[in-house]
């Protein structure tokens, strides 16, 4: 995503997840992708997205989510435990059966920390239900 933004002339910097807290005070906004956009306005994305979004909210930075409209789904997770295991882990990990030593590949970021959604059609504010799911 960072390269695509740069090609469009948008100044973008890719930073390490572990450097988010240190660098957050110097940035203008956070842009993340999403593997899924829930009807509630929360997102499922690569692990660490929740940490970045919480840090951004704490420091009053906007969090923009960029996702194709096909990724908008009628799901209602309320927390990390509500994400089905087949989305959190690779098939090879699930086949082993012991998830106690594994880390999930995705996390759930609640709508309270996401400001704006961008699809190829338009900008969607938090009222996703009215804008997309009513169709």
Automatic annotation (TrEMBL):
SUPFAM superfamilies: NagB/RpiA/CoA transferase-like. GO terms for cellular component: eukaryotic translation initiation factor 2B complex. GO terms for molecular function: guanyl-nucleotide exchange factor activity; translation initiation factor activity. Keywords: Initiation factor, Protein biosynthesis. Belongs to the eIF-2B alpha/beta/delta subunits family. InterPro entries: eIF2B_alpha/beta/delta, IF-2B-related, IF_2B-like_C, NagB/RpiA_transferase-like. It comes from Strongylus vulgaris (Blood worm). This is Translation initiation factor eIF-2B subunit alpha.
